[in-house]
Amino acid sequence: METVSEEFAVPQLGTTRRIRVLLPHDYDAGDARYPVLYLNDGQNLFGEGSPFGNWTIDQKLAILAHRHHHGVIVVAIDHGEEERIAEYQPYNTRLAEGRGRAYLDFVVQTLKPFIDARYRTRPERAKTGMGGSSMGGLISLYAALLHPTVFGRLLIFSPALWTTPKAYGDALRFSCPEPVRAYLYGGERESRYMVPAIERLQQSLLQKQDNKTVQIEMVVDPHGEHTENRWGREFPRALEWLFF
């Protein structure tokens, strides 16, 4: 794990953010280039984690290395603490004044060019993904809806679709001439609304007749709860399906 910066400038939001990178274990052994997955809620992904838990993706990537499915650069972007909901919300709602579009502009215009310049990445859209859970899953959906030429891989766990009713209409209008892969996950023990919500999202994304390029893997976990531990367990399967 490398800490790119504890205070990486986010000019689009007028703030700074900790950015960390997980490189494949054999990154320094050659000159290969790698896909990149940008993950939201960086505090909850590895290391000490947060009070809410930890995905332990560093351990998961070590396990995937045995299957030679570890060749992805993971960029962990910390959330904005009390600004988290606002930064992951694409619209103004009763919950917050949405700053999600500015947040995605930061990733596309500032962070991605920096990562592509510093590391041996595969910068093309088919090798660039965004992922997250809950509100982090919602803004990952909008990464493709708003920047379809940049993001071609989406890891969407338990998205907080209830906060943004417009998401279904936005997904219905989504059209991209190039392949997009989206891994949708939801647990039946999260709430009675989660599984119907991701099923409706899937239908919206696939309903357009010209959307033959959208590929979706939807996983319904009958024991799934709205926890970091559950999302961490699902992470290896999602990463393999998206990139391998």
TrEMBL record:
Pfam families: Esterase. Coiled coil: none annotated. Keywords: Hydrolase. InterPro entries: AB_hydrolase_fold (IPR029058), Esterase-like (IPR000801), Mycobacterial_A85_antigen (IPR050583). GO terms for molecular function: hydrolase activity. This is Alpha/beta hydrolase. The lineage of its organism: Bacteria, Pseudomonadati, Bacteroidota, Cytophagia, Cytophagales.
